[in-house]
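This section describes the prediction task in plain terms. A model, or a person checking by hand, is given the sequence of a single protein chain and must write out its three-dimensional structure as a string of tokens. No templates, partner chains or ligands are provided. The sample shown here is typical of the held-out split.
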Amino acid sequence: MGALAVLALEQNKKFHIVAKLGRHDDLSHHIKTHQPELILDLTTADCVKDNCETYLTHTSRFVIGASGLTNQDIERLALRCLEKKQGALIVPNFSIAAVLCMEFAQKAAKWFDAVDIIEMHHHLKKDAPSGTARHTAHVINQAKQDWPMMHQTPQLGRETFIDGIPIHSVRMPGILAMQQVMFGQPGETFTISHQTIDRQAYMPGILLACEAVMQLQHLVCGLSSFIDLD
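The expected answer:
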């Protein structure tokens, strides 16, 4: 993902890369040395929280493309970014199609009595549920909190609930990323499905995020605000 993002940014005349870092590099040292206007973080859940703390000690805007931040972490980051007038974007999924699926799921929610999210990823993905599934649950919950025909407490085979929405996670080889949001009511179901088969699908969203964050002085979650659905 990082290598593809570097290539996409290098091919875009709006950007100039000053440093490419790995997990063993001194993040704070390189920020002080190169003083980037923007930092793109495509790391993993086990270090993204510490990385955000480092970004907040500097003035660079930043885009986070790693899951692992809780709702409480994001709320705290949002307050600190607002205080510092520091632009930031947390992007659960850079795929434009995935963003559209989340938007459609939010709009569909009010018309149905039950919902489940099934998310599937490759076997090397360390966290579950995925950041995309968590954000999907969050936006659905914003649209509707009451599900009269659905068990809203954990039960066998349905143990993980985020914002009151059940999420099922699959991890196996042969899959890159796939998500289904299944709505139901008496007599019918409605499924919104998205599959990523190549990480190239994320590159347009990465470029969009890197452009959009430069206009921000606060933290925003997701790319939906920057996609015109009219």
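For orientation: The radius of gyration is 18 Å.
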